[in-house]
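Lab channel / #folding
Pinned by the channel admin:
"Please post every new chain as: sequence first, then the structure tokens as a reply. Keep commentary short and put observations after the output so the thread stays searchable."

First post following the new format, from NK:
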Amino acid sequence: MTLVRRDAANNSGPTAPPVPRVTALTDLTHDAVNIALVPLIPQSAVRILDVGCGTGAFGAHLKIGRADRTVVGVTISEREAEEARTHLDQVRVCDLNRDTIAGLGTFDVIVCSHVLGYFYRTEAVLEALKTNLAPDGLLVAAIPNVLHWRQRIELLRGRFDYTNYGVLHRYYVRFFDRRSAYTTLEAAGYEVVERAADGYFPLPGLRSAAPRLAAGADRLAVQLRPGLFATQFLVAARPRQASEKDRE
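Reply from TO:
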């Protein structure tokens, strides 16, 4: 697992407005660098939008050694934004469940790392993000696997416990498996151009003793049974071009 995340939550958020909104998220902070997602981001990308940027750790990583890169972040949390502004070129505080970010301009890459589960109408948010993609732009997403082997065991035990991190994040309203991770993007009008899976095989006691062997077992397990052993699915997608039939 190559996602490192540290969470802190405070449930005393402001009173919810009439439009549905997960207000406790405004007091939640995320500090994460999803290393597995980096290879899907083209080196040629100069303008990058990080949706759900957290404290800006991932965006800061993308800027290392790249003075030409501009990374803009979007978060629902003012607390996150305060720190993210020390790392990123610009940060917008808004709730994409009801707000638009069309005014931010266009980007070569839009990153959505572990954020699609926060959106009530995920397809509608993905559709709206097309406005922010440059003509040859990519949407790059990391999507947690709700049917990972460990979660299946918990379900067999009759447990569905929300947490402050991971696939059962307490503020997720949508969950995805291998199939729905891709079909959700396709339903929003995207064409998946690259896909990968990141995860691990349970090797208690062996991982620290033989890390290279464990890494090989992880790769093989995820390759053969991604729906079981992947903790997250990694996707690069472009807006689907209308066919001649669609234009008629």
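NK: The chain has one domain: 21-241.
TO: also worth noting, The two ends are 47 Å apart (CA to CA).
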